[in-house]
Amino acid sequence: MTDEPLDEEMLMELQRRTRDLPREIEPPADAWERIAADMRVTSPIRVRNPLWQRPIFLVAAGLVLVAATSITTALVIGRKSNVAPSVASVSSSGPASAPATLAEFTVRENEYIATVNVLSAALESKEVGLAPETIAKLKESVRIIDNAILEARSALARDPSNKALIEMLATSYDQKVDLLKRTTEMASL
User: Fold this and answer.
1) In this structure, what is the dihedral angle of CA atoms 68, 69, 71, 74, given to the nearest 10 degrees?
2) Would you list the domain boundaries of the chain?
3) Are 183 and 127 in contact (CB under 8 A)?
4) Is the pLDDT of residue 149 over 80?
5) pLDDT confidence band for 91 (50 / 70 / 90)
């Protein structure tokens, strides 16, 4: 462009010449033939669906949705369930008589471990209601009981028929269950 100002006559002339131009212009005949030949040579263009519309992604999204829903439901049900039934079932059973044999104790030990796991999970969910000093004392007490359980187990492995060791191990588990039960009840208040 030039820096010269457009005068009115030049603008009028430009508009007249623009009006005189044809409205459509046909391309040369050989241009269409070349385009058609190029289209035949190249493979057809495949339009790909967006990622979120592909079947494999839809299946994966469905599986993630099912898993997330299951986990959320489990968490909600777990939070809504009251700890009292678990604690009540432990307290109602009371300290049972010590098992007479190692085989009997092994069965009882699985019950102890399940009860300890339930109480520990319940206590962890209620831990925010306890003072930090209480939590520290609880962890220290559990550690002491766990050490006693390990020592009794080790001794029982060397002398499996020793009824006193079986009773000591059962008592240690009873103490751990009782400690966790009382602390969970205290945290629920």
Assistant:
1) 170
2) 51-80, 84-188
3) no
4) yes
5) very low
